[in-house]
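Q: What residues go here?
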């Protein structure tokens, strides 16, 4: 039986792809982008989502796009919800029969 890997949080990406390679502390990032160290800590630990405000700040600081950060968050959210709801949705929602589509 294959063991499912847990979705990767945006905070894990922040830590592994940005903080560790550049030797950045949570405090340094927080200070440099004008947010609380608590905000960065909560993102790193998966306890806070990356908001549009944070995405814009990260994009400027790390010379990425804000969309990059928002996409990480959206992808994570979809993975989590999919795990929770997939069986329920398969049971409750019948796909629309598009074979009866009338083209004007």
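A:
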């Amino acid at each position: 039986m294959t063991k499912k890997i847990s979705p990767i949080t945006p905070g894990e990406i922040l830590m592994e792809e940005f903080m560790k390679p550049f030797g950045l502390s949570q405090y340094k990032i927080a200070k440099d982008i004008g947010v609380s160290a608590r905000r960065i800590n909560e993102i790193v630990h998966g306890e806070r989502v990356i908001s549009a405000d944070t995405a814009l700040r990260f994009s400027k600081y790390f010379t990425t796009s804000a969309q990059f950060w928002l996409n990480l968050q959206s992808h994570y959210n979809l993975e989590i919800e999919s795990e929770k709801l997939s069986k329920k949705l398969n049971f409750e929602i019948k796909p629309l029969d598009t074979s009866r589509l009338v083209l004007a």
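A: Context that may help when evaluating the design: The chain has one domain: 10-86. The mean pLDDT is 94.
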